[in-house]
Write a structure and sequence with these properties.
This protein is of the alpha/beta class and about 375 residues long. About 30% of the residues lie in helices and about 20% in strands. A 6-stranded mixed beta sheet has the order 16-15-18-10-1-19. The chain has a 4-stranded parallel beta sheet with strand order 4-3-2-9. It starts with a strand and ends with a strand. About 40% of the residues are buried.
Length: about 375
């Protein structure tokens, strides 16, 4: 059976690097997307054991799952600003920390908290360029009024999100300046904004100017940040799957859709039931569509095509070349020089977030 194998020791090593880099800043473990594909409950438990007890999520059902599986005391920050009644009801019922990014969201959260005769914690979201949730910096008077007049919401933090920290220090500094401008204006009016946070994984490791009181870390835990440096982090998560068949192909045999690969001599091949439906040979979409970045991506793809970049799978501690196109659920590898048999495990390099419902196994 194919499995996404996760080495807990690598996660612990990554957490140690994150903690070293964060210094005195608090750490939120971002567990959205099933903990970046590594398993929500398993990763939350591992992080808690490593001393990280603040989590950040986008989907409220994930927060409910944590609460109902023993995570009662941990802070859970919901990163979505919304007026959706069911979402807010769960924030109140499960003692979550909400996000307020609009007047309507503020009034909705305050109203439902008032209905239940309780006080709900929330953080203010500032939109410094991401364009999703948040008040723009010019709405300072509105932000001030919420700190002063929301009777059933305790505003305990304020944050923004960097949209280009992985590739642009200039843009990130501009965002940080806008954000800090809001903080300064609040304090000039006698308002303490609470916990200040902005840095994601890329900002944490690339820059020193924006760690503030806390950092929100997701991809760095997996060791798969969208940067060209690994910063001492280790990649976490690999698919393992038994070889289904081993056979010899005669000279002149074609392999895979399109028949683009043809054997020049007899080759021993292994067939493994893993393919692009499992995330193998699949890449996350590009994060930037600026002209210069698009040209860079095109040149990179052109170069890769010219040099015929090869894919490899590990079998019995030896790299085996992938031959032919990777199929939806099958990959063929050349094992002519490898001693292997059906049932031996092959290991595939994949991004865990793209692996769908493959069972997770921690070791």
């Amino acid at each position: 059976m194919k499995t996404l194998l996760i080495d807990a020791n690598k996660v612990r090593a990554n957490v140690a690097r994150i903690r070293e880099r964060a210094g005195n800043a608090l750490i939120y473990g971002v567990l959205k997307g099933n903990a970046y594909g590594l398993g929500l409950l398993e990763m939350a438990e591992l992080l808690r054991n490593e001393g990280i007890t603040r989590f950040a999520l986008t989907d409220v059902e994930d927060a409910v799952k944590l609460r109902e599986n023993g995570f009662q005391e941990e802070e859970i920050l919901m990163l979505r600003s919304t007026t959706e009644t069911d979402f807010i009801e769960k924030i109140v019922a499960y003692n979550l920390v909400g996000t307020i990014g609009s007047q309507d969201a503020a009034l909705a959260l305050n109203g439902i908290a008032d209905k239940h005769k309780t006080i709900v914690e929330a953080h203010i979201k500032i939109d410094t360029g991401m364009g999703r949730y948040g008040f723009v910096p010019g709405e300072i008077d509105k932000i001030v009024s919420f700190y002063k007049h929301l009777s059933n919401v305790a505003l305990t933090g304020i944050y923004t999100h960097f949209y280009s920290a992985w590739n642009s220090e200039r843009i990130t500094r501009q965002q940080a300046a806008r954000f800090e401008g809001v903080i300064e204006k609040l304090r000039s009016k006698g308002i303490e904004p609470g916990l200040v946070h902005a840095a994601n994984s890329s900002a944490l490791f690339r820059f020193d100017f924006c760690h503030y009181d806390a950092v929100r870390i997701g991809s760095a835990i997996t060791g798969r940040m969208p940067t060209k440096f690994n910063y001492g982090l280790q990649k976490v998560g690999f698919i393992t799957c038994p070889i289904a068949e081993v056979r010899w192909l005669p000279k002149g045999s074609t392999v895979g859709y399109g028949g683009v690969y043809k054997t020049r001599q007899p080759r021993k091949i292994a067939v493994i039931p893993v393919g692009y439906a499992d995330g193998f040979c699949v890449e996350k979409s590009h994060d930037s569509y600026r002209v210069r970045d698009t040209i860079k991506y095109m040149l990179s793809e052109f170069k890769r095509g010219l040099i015929h970049k090869k894919l490899y799978v590990t079998v019995n501690n030896t790299q085996a070349r992938v031959i032919g196109h990777v199929g939806m659920l099958h990959t063929v590898i050349d094992v002519t020089d490898i001693d292997c048999a059906p049932g031996d495990l092959a290991q595939f390099e994949v991004n865990p977030i793209l692996t769908g419902n493959i069972p997770r196994t921690y070791k």
